[in-house]
Design brief:
454 residues; alpha/beta; D-Maltodextrin-Binding Protein, domain 2; six-stranded mixed β-sheet; three-stranded antiparallel β-sheet
């Protein structure tokens, strides 16, 4: 559970504030010196490609060591030096490596932090080293999440190659649903108020928990996008002070003021939603399929009445997906080789094998098709508990057909989240009207954007 919390926490990290200043200062020094690790250090004069992953050792040592050995056989004269970095320290370690001019040649990052690096000129534009048609192997919406507008009008750089994915689905307590008069949880946000009221009135419990703690989950920011809110315009200015934005702010502040959300959403993070669900005080929670395994251990009684359902979406039916990427720092002297290794790691067979071992989802289209077929064929095999987990995994995989990264991986997005959440808290607590809170959030963000981008 601690490891899963670490993964969830990292998926929402973004370098900002002092980290951004450090990036701006340190990333100006591009290119390793001749004696850097990228050019030598191998046992027999081989060139060394330094590769960093996040919290995959020791569980996946065998998988990665096998892939590295296979790639080295196909690429004589190149040695891959693999380093696994803890989730909690990757930003600090990467910044330190940048300043020491020992940045890795290929590193596993999430889109927000990768986008921050790219915006500071710290990542290689992969369009110059990728073969034609490379994007065709991946889910289009996932590939596009690794693109960023460049300084030239109308052009964009591909700063990342997608690796593995996670997609939330809804886990719901069927007993509470039945008591509230529902056979299934709501599918769209417009259905939520009536559902939340029915659960509260008929069961005394709560329908859902979406945190408004500024440095926690981005789920609520994602819901704004699902409700039709455009967060930023092309010039990084606030676009959310709009009719859709006003409706969304009123939606959440009204739910809270009516007592249809737990009081703790303004003070506690996503972990509290898990606690409430496990105690039987929450009708549904947005989470991944493996939540069922933990639930079967920690709260078997609740697990016995839990079933997976499709995630909540907006009118367009789009779900959110979290992406882990592979990026090439600009300092790398082996950019072409690093890109080639990234394509090898993320090809169909290798992604399928990793998805099955790690119980994640592949970004490679061929691998996703094969995983869906495998999960569908498994059917009800095994125990009732395991069959339920397999059903949840299949539902999560199928969610990718209409999923994208809802909150753009743009620099400053964590600052945006903090501003929006803080002002929404004020509206929820009755300190200010929801329209005024939204306008204040837009003003605060625009001041920040003018200072950062001019």
């Amino acid at each position: 559970m601690a490891r899963e919390q670490g993964r969830r926490r990292f998926l929402e990290l973004l370098g900002g504030g002092s980290a951004a200043a450090l990036l701006a200062a340190g990333l100006g020094s591009c290119g390793r010196s001749g004696g850097g690790e990228g050019w030598g250090g191998g046992a027999s004069g081989e060139r060394v490609l330094n590769f960093w992953t996040l919290d995959l050792a020791p569980k996946f040592n065998g998988y990665l060591q096998g892939l590295i050995a296979a790639w080295e056989r196909q690429n004589p004269g190149l040695q891959v030096r693999w380093t696994d970095v803890p989730w909690s320290s990757v930003e600090r370690k990467l910044l330190a490596a940048v300043f020491a001019r020992t940045a890795p040649d290929l590193v596993n990052l999430n889109p927000p932090f990768a986008a921050n690096l790219a915006s500071k000129g710290g990542l290689r534009d992969l369009t110059t080293v990728l073969p034609a048609g490379a994007a065709d192997a991946y889910l289009p919406a996932i590939w596009d999440a690794g693109r960023q507008e460049s300084g030239q009008q109308g052009s964009a750089q591909q700063f990342a190659i997608p690796w593995y994915l996670t997609a939330r689905i809804t886990m719901a307590n069927r007993r509470l649903l039945e008591r509230a008069g529902y056979g299934a949880p709501p599918r769209s946000w417009e259905e939520v108020p009536a559902f939340a009221e029915a659960v509260r009135r008929r069961t005394g419990r709560y329908g859902l928990f979406v945190t408004v703690v500024p440095d926690d989950s981005a789920e609520l920011l994602e819901t704004l996008v699902q409700m039709g809110v455009q967060l930023l315009d092309p010039d990084h200015r606030a676009a959310f002070n709009s009719p859709a934005g006003r409706r969304a702010f009123a939606f959440w502040s009204d739910l809270y003021r009516r007592g249809l959300l737990p009081r703790e959403v303004v003070s506690q993070g996503y972990r509290r939603a898990i606690e409430l669900y496990q105690s039987g005080d929450l009708a549904q929670v947005a989470t991944g399929p493996d939540f069922l395994r933990n639930l079967q251990t920690n709260a078997p009684g609740i697990a016995a009445v839990t079933a997976p359902f499709a995630p909540l979406t907006g009118a367009g039916g789009e779900a959110n997906v979290a992406v882990m990427n592979l990026v090439v720092p600009k300092q790398s002297a082996l950019a072409a080789e690093a890109a080639r290794f990234a394509l090898f790691l993320t090809n169909g067979p290798n992604q399928l094998a990793f998805a099955e071992q790690a119980r994640v989802l592949p970004s490679n289209r061929e691998a996703l098709q094969q995983l869906e077929a495998s999960l569908g064929a498994a059917g009800g095999a095994g125990t009732v508990e395991e069959a339920l987990v397999q059903r949840a995994r299949l539902l999560s995989a199928q969610t990718l057909r209409r999923a994208r990264v809802l909150v753009p991986a743009s620099p400053g997005v964590k600052r945006l989240q903090a501003i929006v959440y803080t002002q929404l808290q004020r509206a929820m607590l009755g300190q200010v009207g929801s329209d005024a809170a939204l306008a204040a959030a837009a003003d605060e963000w625009n001041r920040y954007a003018r200072a950062r981008w001019g």
